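Structural prep section.
Before we set up the soaks we want a predicted structure of the protein with pyridoxal-5'-phosphate in place, mainly to decide which crystallisation condition to try first. Input record follows.
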Amino acid sequence: VGRAHGGRPPPGTIDLSAPQNPLGPPHWALAAAERGARAAVRYPDYEYRDYRRAVHTLTGASPESIVPLNGSAEAVPLLLAALRPRRLVALEPTFGDHALQARALGVEYVPVVWRPGTPPPVDEYCRAASAPGTLGLASNPDNPHGGMLSPETVREMASCTSGVLHVDEAFIRLSDRPGWSLQRDPPPGVVVSGSLTKDLALPGARIGYLIVGDPGLARLLDDARQPWNVNTMAVEVAVEAAGDPGRFHRFLEEARSHARTLRERLLGVLRRAGLEAYESHAPYVLARGPGGLHRCLAEAGFYTRDASTFTGLGEGWVRFSLPPPRLAVELERVLGECVGV
Ligand SMILES: Cc1ncc(COP(=O)(O)O)c(C=O)c1O
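Run finished without errors. Recording the tokens verbatim:
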């Protein structure tokens, strides 16, 4: 098994492989990132007081419950290292290197497949996750298929997990159910990760956090992270965002509305081309076509995410991030050629 992610488009192709905020980064966040780059001549504050206060302002979570992360992708390796669970039970397909990381640390990896377009397999998850020493994992919205778990479902999953359930909410503020976020006050047994990286379309800045309601666990995880895991750029962007929370939330509202329109258009394009495309709550769409679809699209200039590498999917599965309207006609033409309809 190797790492497999999007975001490495061949030169000259249009990148639809790494989903993010379709509005791109706001000018105020870019300006803050530049200030933060200049502040890199100093170490960041290893206690991250300003950063925690900023995340508190943006999410409502208490500052003591916030563990700073070098992008929300740091959550799983930190949890594995600090909790040393016996097994990782993951609702798949899902984002990340969790299977690799579990293997590297000698933790058993147990996938439970949530088929696109179906309700989450809670009973099956619970059968696996009730075994002692379990760390549970689910992304909400799911990446790649964009399905969502209601707060009640998360509570049900947490109550049958013998250990901690990690809910990855990297895309929840860009989904059409931001109200399902549990970041303000995670229920017992649940830790929630969030990503200002995704919110603000700054993947290189790595701006993440984990919210942990249990004070003992929050301290343990904070002790297990390296002292300067969040860089000065990320801190400056978070502090800038929290300096005007109204502006931050209006920006996200506009992003969600734009994403909804683009997603509906993309679903139409994919279905007219003959693909099986799944309803999604997120700023990306998973679709299934003939084997070789990803390669054919790349050769025609559209670099998508080959979703065959996700657990539970296979050849012909492709994830699309949202193309701007000016590309929709060309994408439909190219899809028609690749699918052969
Ligand atoms: C579900 C999910 N979680 C986390 C991440 C990583 O986010 P970050 O940039 O905050 O590490 C991604 C990136 O695509 C993702 O899809």
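Observations: The radius of gyration is 20 Å.
Flagged for discussion at group meeting.
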